[in-house]
Amino acid sequence: MLAELSADNIERVVRMALLEDAPWGDLTSQALIPASARMSADLVAREPGVFSGGQVFAAAMSIADPNTRVELLKEDSEKFAKGDVLATVSGAARPVLQAERVALNFVQRLSGIATLTARFVAAAAGTKARIVDTRKTTPGLRLFERYAVRCGGGHNHRFSLSDAVLAKDNHLAVLTQNGSRDLTEALREARASLPHTTHFEVEVDRPDQIEAVLAAGVDTIMLDNFTVEQLRAGVQQVAGRALVEASGSVSLETVGEIARTGVDIISVGALTHSVRSLDLGLDFRVDAVL
Question: Which of 58, 185, 233, 275 lies at a 20 to 30 A Cα distance from 70?
């Protein structure tokens, strides 16, 4: 089941965004819009996609004014077509207008991430490979962006540096003193210092490093920027002794072929660091000016 964002996390991030956008109120709406004016709006899809961030969108509206009513017509992770109405909003015009940009920014970005993730997942369909995200997220928005990846059918890698060991090339250079120390021995010593529940992953960027890393008893080996042929050979060499992750310059054009090499995991930084926000808009109607 899709793990939901907590209400506390949503409120914390959304309040910060609203304060950033209107630190002393919405000067435009205060000057132009009567306090008594009411309006309704439809959240409309200008292009097809996968929905994510409905609760975040609603929170932006309700934090600006608890009396604003939001009805979500699509659930997170649900697909939609161009022209679909995803949610409706009604309430006092001033707070709706004040929250509009923040609410849209969140739902557009998160739906963009979910939509792109779904395309990667579809391209790898029929294989055992999991599509996972990376730590290349927008600072402060990692919880939201990781959630959007799950909405698109993807999976999450470690959430932070505190969650697991992932030794990359720079770590290994320091650990082995630029190759003057035996890699297997150094990794074994590091592993021995960890709790038995800690997941241990090591990145390699050359096929000749695979055996030395596997001999240390790692849980996952990351084959970074390997060619398809090298990935296929690496999977055969590992032969189930560890999970195999493929990483580096993965695109929609290449992910299917990478998945068919037999890797267990494909990490894709582009899910969050290069995503395009989806084109969603609020179509407004003036209900009354009392």
Answer: 275
Task: List phi, psi (to 5°) of 281.
Answer: -140, 160
Three-state DSSP class for residue 28: helix
Taking only the tens place, the pLDDT of each residue in 146-176 is 999 999 999 999 999 999 999 999 999 999 8
Q: State how far the Cα of 148 lies from the Cα of 120, in Å rounded to an integer.
A: 13
Catalytic (active-site) positions = 101, 136, 168, 203, 224
| Whole-number Å distance between alpha carbons of 90 and 197 | 50
Its pTM surpasses 0.85: yes
pLDDT tens track for 57-112: 999 999 999 999 999 999 999 999 999 999 999 999 999 999 999 999 999 999 99
Q: Over the Cα atoms of the chain, what is R_g? A: 23
d(CA 17, CA 103): 9
Q: Where are the beta strands (DSSP E) in 82-199?
A: 85-92, 130-132, 165-167
Owner of token pair 């050979």: 233
Give yes or no for a contact between 143 and 4, defined as CB atoms under 8 angstroms apart: no
Among residues 49, 63, 21, 40, the alpha carbon closest in space to that of 280 is found at: 49
Which amino acid is located at 257 in the chain? E
* DSSP reduced 3-state for 23: strand
129: DSSP letter: P
CA–CA distances in Å: residue 123 to residues 119, 126, 177: 6, 9, 41
Strands (E) in 168-212, as ranges, are 200-204
State the Cα–Cα distance between residues 142 and 139, nearest whole angstrom. 7
Residue written as tokens 């210092």?
Answer: 193
